[in-house]
């Protein structure tokens, strides 16, 4: 089964009833691109740019940043393959040695992601400048992490527009991660003001179920297939559909073949994952039908717990 999936990894993931799912990869460096292409990735759904910052002892220079993003774009080759770069997502739990940060009692609830960007707009502006410069050599979409409130988004967007004013020749799609429950619940407020959503199920699970995502003893409780998470995904997709924007999933849930079919059933258009999962996820999409997956997804939304969702697996056609 695995060998067969691997043999077909370069074929698109089209369901039995003809619905295409875009299957792309998460990367942490431009040098990952060859590896993910070899697994059948159709682009990059999440470039975690914090790794570029962590690889240096001080903030990477403009030239270093541009080179990295351009390199990812060029290595991808095919310009139909999307490149989505997430802006710096560091904070209390992922510190940067050269960035002074206060000690926090609850770093996951503290200054991280977009919150840090708003406290250090200079840092964000330099990154956006590098991204826009790199986007002159091919399309780049820009995504912002950890947004929890519309005013936060508007401030981020204003900063983006200020920087983008110097690049009238460049057009970037901009979107946000949905990884905080408030953002999913308010997705209808965000959707008219951006180009796409990408759901980060790792943090969304942590914040919804109040379980530390890395906790050794609570990993069973931190299951992103829990119906509470599926309901938040459903809300997000519905808000997106009403506003004609697309929704992807870039958290670990996307890498699970069964969950991938449920996500198709909920109306998710793109799945981004660590590349080794790609062949099996594509195979699962090909075996499923969108219509049947939609029925299954409706049942999953009514399940009372994660176990109830797993029980639907046996009902899968
Ligand atoms: C997530 O939170 O699901 C996500 C994709 O981002 P990260 O794992 O980098 O926090
Ligand atoms: Mg996250």
UniProtKB/TrEMBL annotation:
GO molecular function ontology, one term from the record: phosphoenolpyruvate-protein phosphotransferase activity
Places the protein is found: Cytoplasm
GO cellular component, one term: cytoplasm
Keywords: Cytoplasm, Kinase, Magnesium, Metal-binding, Phosphoprotein, Phosphotransferase system, Pyruvate, Sugar transport, Transferase, Transport
GO terms for biological process, alphabetical: phosphoenolpyruvate-dependent sugar phosphotransferase system
Family assignment from sequence similarity: Belongs to the PEP-utilizing enzyme family.
Protein name: phosphoenolpyruvate--protein phosphotransferase
Residues of the full protein shown: 649 to 965 of 965
């Amino acid at each position: 089964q695995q060998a067969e999936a691997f043999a077909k990894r370069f074929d698109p993931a089209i369901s039995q009833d003809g619905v295409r799912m875009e299957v792309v990869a998460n990367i942490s460096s431009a040098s990952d691109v060859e590896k993910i292409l070899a697994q059948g990735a159709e682009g990059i759904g999440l470039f975690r740019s914090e790794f570029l910052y962590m690889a240096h002892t001080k903030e990477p220079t403009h030239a270093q940043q541009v080179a990295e993003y351009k390199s990812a774009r060029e290595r991808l080759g095919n310009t139909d393959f999307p490149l989505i770069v997430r802006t710096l997502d560091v904070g209390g739990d992922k510190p940067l040695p050269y960035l002074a940060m206060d000690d926090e009692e609850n770093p996951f609830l503290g200054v991280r992601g977009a919150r840090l960007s708003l406290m250090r707009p200079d840092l964000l502006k330099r990154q956006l400048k590098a991204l826009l410069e790199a986007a002159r050599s091919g399309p780049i979409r820009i995504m912002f992490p950890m947004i929890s409130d519309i005013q936060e988004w508007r401030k981020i967007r204003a900063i983006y527009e200020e920087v983008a004013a110097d690049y009238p020749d460049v057009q970037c799609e901009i979107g946000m991660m949905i990884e905080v429950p408030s953002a999913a619940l308010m997705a209808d407020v965000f959707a008219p003001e951006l180009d796409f959503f990408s759901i980060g199920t790792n943090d969304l699970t942590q914040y919804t179920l109040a379980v530390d995502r890395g906790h050794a003893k609570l990993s069973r409780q931190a299951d992103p297939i829990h119906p509470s998470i599926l309901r938040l995904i459903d809300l997000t997709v519905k808000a997106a559909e009403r506003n004609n924007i697309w929704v992807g999933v870039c958290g670990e849930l996307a890498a699970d073949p069964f969950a991938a079919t449920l996500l198709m059933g909920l109306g998710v258009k793109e799945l981004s994952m660590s590349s080794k999962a790609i062949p099996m996820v594509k195979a699962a999409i090909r075996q499923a039908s969108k219509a049947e997956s939609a029925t299954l997804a409706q049942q999953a939304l009514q399940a009372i717990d994660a176990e109830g969702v797993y029980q639907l697996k046996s009902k899968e056609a």
